[in-house]
Amino acid sequence: MRKTSLLALLLTFVLVASACSLKTKTDVANKPDNSGTTTAAQNDTRVDIELLSMSSNESEINIIRDQLTKNGFNVKLNLQPDYGSFKAQEDGGNFDIALSSWTTVTGNPDYAVRSLFKTGGDYSIISDPELDKLIDEAATETPEQYTDTYKQLEQHLVFDKAYIAPLYISLKSQAVNKEVLNPDTVRLSKSRALAWETIDFKDTSKRDKEPLILTQSSSVLTSLDPIKGNDGSINQLNTNMYVRLINLTDDDKITSDGSLSYNHSIAEGNTEYYFLLRDDISFAKIDNKQAVDTGERVGADDVIFSLDRAKDKNSVPDHRTYSLHEHIKTIETVTDLAALDNVKQSSGKGSIREALDAGLDTKIKELVADKNQADHTAGKYQVVKLTTTEPFPQVLNYLAHQSAGIVSKKQVESINTYDVAKFDVNKDIPYGDQNTVTEGSKYNNTLYASGPYILSYKNDYEGIFYKNPGYRKGSKFEPKIATVKVRFIADSDSALSALRSGEIHLYYGVPETKYDTIESDSKLKLQSIESNAVSYLLFNTSNRDVAKNEDLRKAVLYSINQDDFLQFYSNKKIKAVSTVSPIVKTGNELTADPAKVKEYLDKYKATK
Amino acid sequence: MGAARIAKPSHGSNLSCYISDVYAKMLLNPSYKYWLLVLGAPVNLIVLLYYGLHRKNDIYHALMNETRSELLEAGYLTQLLEETQEQLLRKQQFFKQHVSAERTERQAKHIAEAKFKETLFEETNRKLQSGGQQRLSYAATFAKLIENPVFLLLSILPGLLMYLLIGLYSNPYVKYVFERLIMSLFVILGVSVLVFTILYLSPMNPAANILGETATEEQIANFNRIYGLDQSYLSQLWSNIKGIASFDLGKSFSGNEQVTATIARKFPITFTLTVISLLLSMLIAIPVGIISATRRNSLWDYTFMFIALIGLSIPSFWQGLIFILNFSIKLHWLPATYNPQDWLSIIMPTIVLGTGLSASVARMTRSSTLEVIHEDYILTAKAKGLSKRQVLLRHAVRNAMIPIITVIGLQFGGMLGGSAVTEKVFNISGLGSYIVDKQFIPDIPSIMGGVVYTAITISLINVIIDILYAFLDPRIRTRMKQY
Amino acid sequence: MIQTNLKTSGGYSKAALQRVKRHRTTEYTLAVHTLLTGLLVLAVSALNLFKPYVSDTFLPAMSVLLVISLFHAIALLLVLKFVRRNKRIAPRMAAIAGLLILTSATGNLFALLLGIQLLRRIRGQENPTSAKWEDIWESLTRNVAAMTGLSFIIFLFSISVCSLFTFDYSMATENNYSAILQHPSLAYPLGTDNFGRCLFSRIIFGARTSLIVGLISTAIPVVVGGILGAVSGYYGRRTDNIIMRLLDILYAIPGILLAIAIIAAFGANTVNLILALSIGSIPTYARTMRANVLLVSTYEYVDAARAFGSGDAKIIFKHIVPNSLAPMIVKATLTIGAAVISTSSLSFLGLGVEPHIPEWGNILKLGSTYLETNSYLAIYPGLAIIALVLSFNFLGDGLRDALDPKLS
User: Fold this and answer.
1) Exposed, middle or buried, A18 (CB in 10 Å: 0-12/13-18/19+)?
2) Chain B closest-CA separation from residue A34 CA (Å)
3) B169 and B263: one domain?
C-alpha cells in the first residue's frame, strides 16, 4: 500500500513539475511551421475525396491518405479486395482518385501511353484531342525526336490538365542464393521476364544432376498457349517455352540475340520489317514425362501461323493479347532474294539484304520456302516480312512480348480442332490448357515448345521443366541446367523464408521492404534495376467534381509528395512524372507544394 | 426382408400383427405419417376405400350419441358449470384479481364444455370396451385387412416402399441412424442454399476480374452466358445443388479447372493435416487432462492448465511465423514451406494447427474427468476395493471420454475450416487456402464446392460419432428405445 | 509494456489476496482493485509526458484522473474502516457509493462494482438471491487468476475510455516519415512502425477496437442465440424442431469459413467483421440456452407461474431466462477470447477491419513482417492479444467455478 501511494505522490509531483513546460498539440500547431504540411489543415472546411484502391496496396493508400489529410482533404477509402471489384468500382465511377499502376512490358513508350490516355484506348477514360495528337505524333518518331514530344505530352497530361498524379517508379529485383548459383549468370532485365537458359550453378558439375529451383506465386496457369494469357502466372514460363522473332536486351533495346532470328531490319517508311530466321531450333515435346526432340524445325510457316493468330481476335476463345498486335497488317515469307536488294533500310542507307547479312558466317545465297531445306552453312535461309498498318517502328517491341512466342503450326492445328464460335469449355480442350499438364487423370501433355525449356508436368506445389534438346545445341544459348523446378509459393514472406532456408535458389520480384533482410543474409545476393512499372493516381473523368474542376485535381496533384514514398521505401523507389518516365527521360519533375494546394483549393471552394 | 417373406406363411398372424402395430404408431407421428401415406399410396388407397365403405356401419357414433343424452339427462353439464365457476371465483379472490362476472361466466362455460367432452369421450370408450367392440379407425381397418394373408401378399409389391419404411421404423437403431442421415441430408441442402445465397448477394463481379483489363462488354456477357451467371437466382441455385449432388460443379471461373477434381486434389492434404493434428493433440492432451484432474490443484495441474490456456490464446499465424523464423531460418532444422516430397515439412503445420485443439481437449478432459470422479458409481467402485488406478482407467476415464469425443467431433470441423490460416502460413495448397484464394474473385462454383464439401465431411463425421454413441453409451441407448 | 502491466497486476493481486485473507470482505478487494486500476491508467497515460507534445485535453484529464484516484484512496480507507463482514453498512456510505458509481465514467468498472456492492449492502440482505450473489462475488474475488484477468480487462477498458482525452490519436494514425522503424525509447515506449507511428499509442487505441469487436461479436450471438434457444426450449415440438434444424445448417459450416464467405462477399469493414463473427456462433449459444431452458422449465416455480396465469413471454423472460443465464455468461466470457483470435486471423487473411484503423490483429499482421528485423513490432501486439485472451479465459474459468458450485 505504501508503495502505491508513494507512486501516486511521485506522479503528482512529475505532473505538476512538467505542467509548466509541457507542450500541447495546439501549441505545436500554432507555431509557424516551415515544413508547411500542416498549414493547409487550418482551412475551415475539408474537401471530401474518395480514394479507390485494391487492398493489397496498403502502404501506398496509407501514405496518400496521410498526405491528403494533412493538406485539408477528408479522405474516404474505397478498398476492394481484388482487381475485378476494383475495376467494377472504377467503371461505375465510384471514385475521385484511383490508385493505378502500369507496367510497360514491351519496353516501348507508345505502349505506356496509347491504351491509357488516348481517346478510346483499352483502358483510357480520358478524351483530349491534344493528347491524341501528341501520342500519334510520338509513335512515328525516332527516340531522338520523341523525347521532346513526350515532354510536351507530360506537361499537358500532368501539369496543365492534371489527369493523373504520378507517384513513383518501382524497382525490379531478384535475390540469388550465391552459394548455389553463379550470380553472374542470372540476368535481370528491365522489361523482359527472367531468361533461364543462361543460369548456371556455381558448381557446374551439378548441371545435369540437380534442378534449378525457382518460385512464382500463382499455381494456376492461365494458359500455356502464349496468346491466351498476359499475366504473372505465365509470363515467365511462356517466355522460356516459346522463342520469339526478336528479343529485348536487359535495358530494353531490340536485339536478335537469343531469338529465332539471326538479324532483322526495318525498311524505309517504317511499315515493312524483315527477319532472317535461324535453322538450329526444333520443337520439343513431352514423352513419358521426359523432353524429347521432335526433329521438327521452327520455321517461317510457324512464324506466320503464330503471328496471324496473335493479331486475330477470333483465332482462339479467350484471346487476351490481340490488342498488342493490332498494328500487324500482314506477315509473309520472302523467297525472292531480289526483293531484299531492292528495299532500302529505314535509315535510308543500304539495302535490307545488307542489314540481314551483317555478321553472318555464310552470307545469304538463297531464300527457301520450305523450312527443312534451310541450311545456314550453305547460305540457304528463310526470311519473313511483316507489314504494319501504319509506320510504327515500336511494333518490334510488341514482337518481343511473350504473346508473340512461336508455336508449332502442325501441333496447334491438330489440337485446336474445335469451332471457335461454338467453343464449349466443358468439352473442348484447347492447346495449352493447364489441365493437360496437371498431374492426374486429365494429364495429356501435348505441348510443343520452341524455346529453351518445356513444361513436363505440374501440381499444386511445383512445375517441372526440362531443357529442349533441340534448342541451339552446342551454342552459348543452349540451356545450361537440365531441369528447372518452379515452386508455387503464394505469399512473398513465405517465398523469402524458403529462399533463406535454402529451399529455393532464386526469388524473383523481392518487395522493396525486404531488401535489408536479404542484404543482411551472407549467402544471398540482391540484384535490382529500375523497372517500367509506374504507380499513379487516376482522376475520375466523368461524374465527380474532380472531373469538371481542374483546380481540385491540381490541389490533389500538388499534395502528393513523392519524397515521402521514397523515404518510406528507403529510396528503393524512383520519382516519376508519367507512365513513360522509366523509358523516356523528359526532365520534368513534380514537386509537392502546399501553398499551391491551398491556392487551388481556395479557387475550387470559390466556385461552390 | 427376404427372410421375413419366406417365414411368412407360418408366422403370418404374428407378422401382420406387428406390422399393423407399427403402422398405427407411425400414423401418430406427423412426419412419418406423411411419408407412410405417400410411399404406400396404392395400398393406402385400398384401405381408405374399404374404410370409407365400412365406416357407415360403425357403432361408435350411435354409442356416443347415446352416452351424450344420458349424461345430459343426469345434469352433468350444469353440475360441471357450477363447480368451475366456484373454482374460478375462489382463485380470483386469492390472487386479488377483479374480473367482471360476465367474463368469469364465459370462462367457466368454456372450461366446463371442454371437461364435458372429455368425459363423454372416456365414457363412450369405456362402453365400447365393455361391449367387446372396437371403434373402426383407419389404423384398425388396416390391421384388419393385413391380417388377411392374401391382402398382405398382394400388397407386398405395390407397398414395398411402405413396408421398408415400417421395417425401418420398427428397429430403434435403424430408425435412429436413418433419421440422423436424413437430418444430415437436410443440413447439407441447407448449407448449399445458404452459401450460394451469400455468394449470389455479393456485389462483386467475377467476369471483370477474370477477363482482365482488356475485356469488352461483349466478352463479359459471353462469360456470364457460359457460366450461367445471367440466369435467375433459382435456376442458378438449382444447377449448383445438382452439381454438388452429382460431384460435378463444372469448371472454375479462372484457371479452367474441374472444380470437383481440384477439390478432390486439395482435400487430402487438408484432411491429413487435420487428422494428424487431431491424433497428436489427443495423444498429448488426454493424458495431460487426466493427470491434471487426478492431481487437482497440484503444481502439475497449474502448469498444464496454464500452458493449455496459452495455447488457446496464441494467434496461430503468429505462432507459425515465430516457428518459421526460429526453426527454418535461424536453425535450419525444418523447411519453411510445405513440400509433399519432404515429410519434415509437415511437422510445423501439424503442431501449429494442433495447438488450439490440444488446449481445449486437455481442458475438457480435466473438467469431465473431475465431474465423473465425484459420481456415485466411482464411489461404489472404490468401495468394491478396486485400486485407484483401476477405478480411474476402467470407470472414470471411460465415462469421461463421452464429452471429450463430442468436443473432438466439434473441433474437427473447426480445424478443417481453421486450417486456412495454417495453410497460408506454410504455403500448403489445401482446401482452406483454396477457398480463401477463390473468395477474392469470387469464384462461385469453387467456393460453393469447398465450403459445402467441408460441411458434408463434418456432418458425416458427426453422424458417425453420434451413431457410435448410440451403441456405446447406455444412457442414450435406453432413451432411444423409449420412443 | 503489456508484459509489465500483467506482472504488476499479478503482483498487486497477490498483495491484495493477503489482505483479503485477513479482512475477507469483497468490498475491500474491489476497493483495492479500483484504486490500483486507476493508478495504472494514470501511470500509463503519464508516459505521454515524454512525447514531443501531448493532446490538448491531457492536463485537465490527468488532473481529473488524479483527483479520482485520491477519492478512490479515501474510499478504500473508508471501506477498510466501516465495512465488516455480515454487518449492515451505515446509510451515510451511500454518498460514497454514488460518487464511486459516478467515477466509473472513466471506464474503471471496479468502481461501479464497488458502488453497487455497497448500495446492496446498505439496502440490506433480506433477498435470498442476494446471498447467492454474495457467494459468487466471494468466490470470484478469492480467485487470483480470475481477478487478474478481470483487472487486465477493466484496465484495458478504462484506458480505452481515458485515452480519448489523454492520448493523441494522430500519434497512432498520422505517418511520420522521419521516425520510421525506431526502436523503443521514452518518447516511443514500444518503438515505431514502418510508417513512423507510435506503436504504444496504436496498441492503446487498438485495445478499443479489439474490445468492441470482441464484446459485440459475442453479445449479438448471445442475445440472438439466447432468444432462439429460449423460444425453442420453451415451446418445444415443432417450433423447436424448425429453429434447431435451421441452426444446424449454420452449425455445419465452420465458423471461420462462414466468416470468410460473408466478409469476402460484402467487403472488409468493422461492421461486416462483427456480423460475420456473430452469425457463426449463434447456434452454439442457442443450443446452450435451449438445454438450460429445458432443464429450468421443469422446475416448480415455472409451473407456479403458469398456474398464476402469466403469459408465455413473461414466463420466458422473467422466470426461465434469468435462471438459465449462468452457463451463457460463462460461455460468453470464454468465447470473447476466441473472437479476438478470430479477428486477428481474419486480419492476417486480409479480411479484417480497414488497415489504417489501429486494431490488434492489424497491428500484429503489419508487425509480423518485421518479426526478424524489428521484432518489437511483432512481439508486443502478439503479447497484448495473448494477455487479453488469457484474461478472458481466466475470468471465464473463475466465473464458471463461482457459478457452478458442483465443482468447487
Assistant:
1) middle
2) 42
3) no
Minimum distance, in Å, between the CA of residue B337 and any CA atom of chain C: 16
Q: Tell me if B461 is assigned to some domain.
A: no
Whether the complex's predicted ipTM surpasses the cut of 0.85: no
Tell me which chain C residue has its CA closest to the CA of residue B411.
C254
Mutation site, A55, A80, A85, interface B, largest B CB count within 10 A: A85
Q: For residue B157, is it within any domain?
A: yes
Average pLDDT of adjacent 10-residue blocks, chain B of 483 residues: 38 66 74 75 77 71 79 82 85 77 83 85 79 67 74 74 76 80 87 87 70 62 77 86 83 74 88 90 88 84 88 89 89 87 88 89 84 75 74 72 76 80 88 79 78 86 78 66 55
Question: Using the beta-carbon criterion (under 8 Å), do C245 and B186 form an inter-chain contact?
Answer: yes
B480 part of a folded domain = no
The stretch C62-75 carries a mean pLDDT of 91
pLDDT one-digit tens code per residue, C145-158: 889 999 999 999 99
**Neighbouring subunits of B (3+ Cβ pairs under 8 A):** A, C
Q: Closest Cα partner for C187 from C299, C84, C47?
A: C47
What is the DSSP annotation of B199-235?
A: HHH----HHHHHH-TT--HHHHHHHHHHTTTTS-HHH
Q: For residue C281, how far is the Cα from the chain centroid?
A: 18
pLDDT tens-place string over residues A62-117 = 899 889 988 889 888 877 766 656 776 777 677 899 998 888 878 888 888 887 88
| Subunit contact C195:A24, Cβ cutoff 8 A | no
Look at strands A462-467 and A483-488 and give their pairing: antiparallel
- Among C261, C250, C218, residue whose Cα is nearest residue C349: C261
Q: Which of B174, B192, B227 is the last residue of a domain?
A: B174
Interface contact B246, partner A, CB < 8 A? no
Q: Which three cell numbers stand for residue A104?
A: 510497360
Question: Which tens digits make up the pLDDT trace of A26-46?
Answer: 776 654 444 444 444 444 688
- What phi and psi, each to the nearest 5 degrees, are found at residue A188? -130, 110
Answer whether A220 sits within 8 Å of B258, measured CB to CB: no
- Closest chain B C-alpha to C164 CA, distance in angstroms: 28
State whether B312 and C407 contact (CB < 8 Å).
Answer: no
Tell me the residue range of the domain where B358 lies. 259-440
Q: Which residue has the higher pLDDT, C383 or A252?
A: C383
B169 and B280: one domain? no
Highest mean pLDDT among A38-47, A217-226, C128-137: A217-226
Among partner residues C341, C372, C390, which is closest to B310 by beta-carbon distance?
C390
- In the numeric block, the cell 521516425 is attached to C179
**Listed residues B174, B209, B244: the one ending a domain:** B174
Same domain, B405 and B263: yes
Residues B309 and B412 in one domain: yes
Report the DSSP beta bridge partners of residue B203: none
User: Count of domains in chain B?
Assistant: 2
Which residues of chain B have a CB within 8 Å of the CB of C146?
A: none
Other C-beta atoms lying within 10 Å of the C-beta of residue B463: 17
In a domain, residue B355? The reply is yes
Cα within 13 Å of Cα(C116), Cβ side:
10
- Provide mean pLDDT across the span A213-224: 85
Beta carbons of C180 and A567 less than 8 Å apart = yes
Q: Which residues of C touch B199 (CB under 8 A)?
A: 261, 265
Identify the closest residue of chain A to C39 by CA–CA distance: A8
* CATH number of residue B341's parent domain: 1.10.3720.10
Grid coordinates belonging to B98:
377483479
- Domains of chain A, start order: 3-171+532-606 (3.10.105), 181-421+429-495 (3.40.190.10)
Decide if B417 and C257 are in contact by the 8 Å CB cutoff.
Answer: yes
- pLDDT attached to residue B108: 83
A460 contacts on B by Cβ (under 8 Å):
265-266, 429
Say whether both B157 and B290 belong to one domain.
no
